[in-house]
């Protein structure tokens, strides 16, 4: 009898499989400049400190940071995504991580994606990366709580038929690492030396 598979792989999307974090940051910067006159939006702060969180959590922190009052979170989030979607024709895959995911898929390993982005964005990005055949995708469209809450990772493990302790997660942000660890999973943290700098 063949031994049951004990190794499962879950990839974050933004900043791991595709380089989109600055795209999100620039979309937020555009909204905060147009609607609130914020001229000093810090893209590096956004990428390094807020990456992995859902849009509503990011808006709350950004509003406090820049001293503005956001009355309609839904409208701001929608406008940000409209600007972000304009960049989707220029998605840049992170090639070595994409090759890893492809090798695992081709070897018959069980692979999933757990992302704080919405489903339609995840599908577009995976298509651009040549990974649209990843069978399990858990996105912000399917969960009530996004990272650092572990819900997305736990849902991915459930769909994989895996015990969380048998899952290896590939992440790039502190928020994502916290979510995976809270789910009881092992984490491989990816650092992009072009984005995060060489001394990490």
What does this protein structure show overall?
The protein is an alpha/beta fold and 200 residues long. It contains 9 helices and 7 strands. It has 2 domains: 8-19 and 91-196, Rossmann fold; 21-89. The chain has a 5-stranded parallel β-sheet, with helices on both faces. Strands 2-3 form a two-stranded antiparallel ribbon. Strand 4, helix 6 and strand 5 (136-138) form a beta-alpha-beta unit.
Helical stretch count?
A: 9
The CATH homologous superfamily of the largest domain is called: HAD superfamily/HAD-like
Mean pLDDT: 91
Q: Could you describe the largest sheet, including whether it forms a barrel? A: 5 strands, parallel
What is the topology, as strand order, of the major beta sheet? 5-4-1-6-7
**Compute the gyration radius: what is it?**
17 Å
């Amino acid at each position: 009898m063949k031994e049951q598979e004990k190794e499962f792989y879950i990839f974050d999307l933004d900043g791991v499989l595709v380089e989109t974090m600055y795209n999100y940051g620039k979309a937020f910067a555009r909204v905060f400049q147009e609607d609130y006159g914020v001229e000093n939006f810090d893209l590096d702060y956004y990428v390094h400190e807020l990456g992995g969180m859902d849009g509503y959590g990011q808006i709350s922190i950004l509003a406090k940071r820049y001293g503005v009052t956001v009355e309609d979170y839904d409208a701001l989030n929608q406008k940000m995504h409209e600007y972000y979607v304009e960049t989707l024709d220029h998605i840049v895959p992170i090639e070595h991580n994409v090759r890893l995911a492809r090798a695992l898929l081709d070897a018959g390993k069980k692979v999933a994606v757990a992302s704080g982005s919405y489903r339609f964005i995840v599908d577009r990005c995976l298509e651009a990366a040549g990974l649209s055949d990843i069978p399990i995708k858990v996105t912000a469209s399917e969960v009530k709580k996004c990272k650092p809450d572990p819900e997305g990772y736990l849902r991915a493990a459930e769909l994989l038929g895996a015990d969380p302790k048998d899952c290896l997660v590939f992440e790039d942000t502190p928020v994502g690492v916290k979510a995976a660890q809270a789910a009881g999973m092992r984490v491989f943290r990816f650092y992009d030396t072009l984005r995060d700098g060489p001394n990490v």
